[in-house]
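Pair request: fold both.
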Amino acid sequence: MGPVLAMKIIAHGIDLVDFERIEQMLDKHPERFPQRVFTSAELADADKVKNRIEKLAGRFAAKEAVMKLIGTGWRDGIAWTDIEVVNNPLGQPIVTISGKVKELANEKGIEQITLSITHTANFALASAVALQG
């Protein structure tokens, strides 16, 4: 077994999203909302599952949780699509950051972000942890 690398938790973000909120946004802005908030890979993933709203709500919550650990809010050129959440082959959500979000994460010394998403009948909850080391 190789050396164990010690990772330090340097930030945490959590968010809870009501499915109804996502449905309302999709009804109000059926083109603009999904294109502004989700990447093409995220939308393609959502189209593959039975409960599309559940999947999109989970992704939305994950993006909010990542922004909370970054700590700046949605400003200064940050785009929703700077944060992409897709599943690895085992079904685990993996977050990839780019653009302004990546820049801010680098400034804060964030080397890795781990993510967990869970759902109930009406809500999606996401927890994001920033690691360094």
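--- second member of the pair ---
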Amino acid sequence: MHEVSLGATLRDYLTGQDVDHTTYEDLRQALARLLVEELGHPRGLVEPRVRVRFDVPPASANASSPLVPPTPEAPRSFEGADRPADLADLADPADPAAPAPSDDPDEGCRVVDLTLRDDDGTPLCIVLFCPGAPGTYARESVAAARLFPGGPAPLVAVTDTRDALLVAAVDGAVLGEGMRALPKRDALRRLAAEHPCPPLTPERAAGERRILGAYTAFLKRCCGEDVCLL
């Protein structure tokens, strides 16, 4: 089942503002409440609905540190997580034919449901709700973490509110499974320090944007853009 508007609004737990009531918004609100009230993340440091753009080079595109490839001793990761360079080799971040940003704020971007930030505002973990098996959304979520504005975000959690994966953005290693894998505040800061994700080179950023764009386009077009809100 895809996300559709129910033609009403509800009060956002984090901001107090009215948001569109969709078939999945209740689950997102419950997830935000879980992070704050049970896992101890300060409400003011949990940010909803951050857009990660994939149609233009991010500000970090001039950084020089590449991602560190996984070693044979690294924890298990989902298939394909450690091979973003395949697409990066085909991408040219300076291509004048690259698409320009649209007037639509949601065009050319993936909306991250929740962002857990450190005291100084640095992103520690992005949390994405998925209407299906978390593992099938892991690769696009890692791409979003690597491209996250002001980041990369070192950790990414993918959950349908019944199951979850906690993944390191640097190499796609799965750090935990199940809802108990969603870390409390102190554990999150420790894990983020243990799994830093350096800024992307322009080539790697271009590859990650293509990956994120491909996944996002599939989600929006699989059932008709006039209906699906994913």
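Observation on the second member. The chain has five helices and eight strands.
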